[in-house]
Amino acid sequence: MAKRRAKGAASGGSERGGKRGKRSTATTSSTASTAPSAPSAASAASAASAPSAPLVAGSDGTWADVRVYVVPLRIGAVQGRVLRNRVAALGGAVHDFVSPTTNVIVANLDVSELIEWLRQTTWNESNTPQEEPRFHKLDYLVDSLKQQSPISPHDFRLHSDEEYVAQVKMAKYQQYRREHQRRADVSGTRTVALSVAGSDKMVSLEVSDELAKKRRKKARVLASREFFACQGAKATDPKGNNMLVSRQLNELADMYKAEGDQWREYTTRNAARRIAKLPFALKSGAEATKLPKIGKKLGAKIQEILDTGSLRKLENFKADDKVVALELFQSIWGVGAATARKWVHQRGWRTLRDVRDHADSLTTNQAIGLKYYHDIKSRIPRSEVMAIEARVREVATAVVPGVALTVCGSYRRGRLTCGDIDVLFTHPDDKVAVSAVSRVVPALHDAGLLTHDLTSDNRGDSYMGLCRLGPDSLHRRIDLKSFKQSEYGCALLYFSGSEHFCRSVRTWARRQGYSLSERALVRRFSRDTKSDLPIPGLFTEEAVFQALGLKYVPPEERDI
DNA sequence: GCAATATGGAC
DNA sequence: GTCCAT
DNA sequence: TTGC
Ligand SMILES: O=c1ccn([C@H]2C[C@H](O)[C@@H](COP(=O)(O)OP(=O)(O)OP(=O)(O)O)O2)c(=O)[nH]1
Ligand SMILES: [Mg+2]
């Protein structure tokens, strides 16, 4: 069955860095002698004597939390001094430089000039605001100072002001990407994990790795990890600025999937994910094409959505009964793009009834998928997963003493409902570990929990099938997999997903010269060894993250 | 022209 | 090798 | 569909 991907709510990441940008060396300074124009009549001078007014949206109406930097361009010395004194007199802080605590930046520039200023400035740890500052035009500060009663930025020329902020944010985002195209940090250490006798706990040690240290010299220019979805830590924009766009692109991806167009699906869905997490509203398709992996075609589609609220290409797909049927058929477990295409285009089928009427042309698994179509489609409440886990654990420990099992997948990521149950098994004895599933499966059948097999080879280390708690419960999809303890870190990382997270980690690994599978992390043929070199000791997920130079991400934050 | 995760079972 | 799955 |  083709699982429908998460709706526009997911966050995403681009795994391919943008082009390398030249770094400007210009530095910002409050004493910059660059103010080009003569002081015009300081419009702010007349702003005197007003009581407090808020400068930041949602502030408490005082200036206490306002820490402002005034860009010293197109602002005369006199006007600048007056503004700064005024803010200070009302209790706000005035910064001579942009600092980590600056939260308001005021500039008497148009957007392109401000973008240029951002570009010309070398941003580093000491001058990059920790929280996204608000950008405002000079008028904003002047008017805020002038007001008797408090005004919020949203009351003030809402449209142009928000537009200004959005454009600047995009420029800053791109600046950030450019600045972070840098050399990978090859740590020169690697992790060794030791299993502790009589326990399934393991200990990680970091040891010096002479090989890695040698490699440090040869480290090539690699993408920076913060641009990978698996390190993004960015959730969907809570304000839902671009919901309309991201939802429709995600639906378009569903249509491409229905047609079996894997790569259009992939790019479109990633675009939808990344747009969903932008912290500001897209204003045009052209603006969107500044994001990596959003090119001309997607830009035009986004523009159409912004203009008309809908996308003709998507509407056409949705109105096409062939496409609707393709999607329907692929939602049967065991039916993929090729089979659906055959049924629709060669046999003219359109409904589940059509499929049911030709049951003889189904594979064994498809027949099961069709019979339990609705059971399999419905999501499993977390509580039911826990009940199934308890039964599996009970049976498994009885038949394989000392076995350890972990329910992974969306359950481990903390989802309240799950599409299926994904269970990993291991055991301190490798021989027992790899045979765990094949020993447990017959016992689960005997216990009445397993009802249908979707894998027939029952000697393997992997099982797929249906299970149910009892005659009043729905049939649920369940996957069981066995791994050696030495593979368990990689196995947990794989089986816990999400799919997008998994692909992101593996793409990152490949960029670093590794290949990551559910069993192992291997260094791809290093000249010296002439063949692939498995990294030993990856008993835990932490060890795998560390070996890859990634910050550990708990399962709950992998739900991207 | 090619890669975009990596792997395994069924046929 | 293709299809389908995770 | 995008980017190299
Ligand atoms: O194409 C895929 C699909 C899945 N996986 C991994 C990640 C995923 O988390 C795990 C289990 O897959 P499943 O399909 O069960 O996804 P899930 O994350 O558990 O979500 P659901 O609630 O739909 O089961 O297998 C992949 O690597 N590639
Ligand atoms: Mg699952």
TrEMBL record:
Single GO cellular component annotation?
A: nucleus
Matching SUPFAM superfamilies:
DNA polymerase beta, N-terminal domain-like, Nucleotidyltransferase, PsbU/PolX domain-like
Classification via Pfam families: DNA_pol_B_palm, DNA_pol_B_thumb, DNA_pol_lambd_f, HHH_8
Under the GO molecular function aspect, what terms does this record hold?
DNA binding; DNA-directed DNA polymerase activity; lyase activity; metal ion binding
Q: Which residues form the active site?
A: K301 (nucleophile)
Coiled-coil spans in chain = none
The record's InterPro entries line, in alphabetical order, gives: BRCT_dom, BRCT_dom_sf, DNA-dir_DNA_pol_X, DNA_pol-X_BS, DNA_pol_B_palm_palm, DNA_pol_lambd_fingers_domain, DNA_pol_lamdba_lyase_dom_sf, DNA_Pol_thumb_sf
Q: Which organism is it from?
A: Thecamonas trahens ATCC 50062
- Record region (Disordered): 1-41
**Which classification does the entry list for the species?**
Eukaryota, Apusozoa, Apusomonadida, Apusomonadidae, Thecamonas
Name the Gene Ontology biological process terms.
Answer: DNA replication; double-strand break repair via nonhomologous end joining
Q: Which residues form the BRCT domain?
A: 58-158
Q: Which reaction does it catalyse?
A: DNA(n) + a 2'-deoxyribonucleoside 5'-triphosphate = DNA(n+1) + diphosphate
Q: Give the protein name, as stated in the record.
A: DNA polymerase
* Presence of keyword DNA repair: yes
